[in-house]
Write a sequence for this structure.
């Protein structure tokens, strides 16, 4: 899959991979990162790498992939930057908080569909009683 990336995408992929390793090495050895950074950095980079590796085959849909990458960065970045405020207003979220969360969940489902396959996404949406049959 890596071989199918163009030169610029390979550079971005490599840089993000190294940043991920360096960040978590630093966080594990020298100074632990705050919760929002520890989780957020991982999810942002994982989403970007996931959309890069499991890209759409059609050229027009590749533009949608880049849009999903930008929406991922925005959604998770919003969570990172507003982590404390969101925690303090738990149960009293703003409509904007909810909209960003909905985008984040839908982006996560789309990435899971690409990586794991449609069947697991569908199974995840089934009620518990139906899931037990599998």
């Amino acid at each position: 899959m890596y071989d199918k990336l163009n030169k610029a995408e390979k550079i971005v992929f490599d840089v993000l991979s190294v940043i991920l390793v360096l960040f978590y090495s630093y966080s594990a050895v020298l100074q632990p990162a705050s919760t929002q950074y520890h989780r957020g950095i991982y999810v942002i980079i994982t989403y970007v790498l996931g959309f890069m590796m499991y890209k759409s085959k059609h050229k027009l849909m590749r533009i949608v992939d880049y849009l999903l990458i930008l929406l991922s960065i925005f959604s998770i970045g919003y969570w990172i930057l507003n982590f404390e405020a969101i925690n303090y207003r738990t149960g009293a979220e703003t409509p904007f908080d909810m909209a960003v969360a909905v985008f984040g969940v839908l982006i996560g489902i789309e990435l899971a569909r690409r990586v794991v396959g449609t069947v697991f996404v569908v199974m995840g949406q089934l009620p518990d009683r139906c899931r037990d049959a599998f």
Q: What stands out?
A: Helices lie at 7-29, 35-53, 59-81, 83-88, 95-116, 118-125, 128-131. The chain has a mean pLDDT of 86.
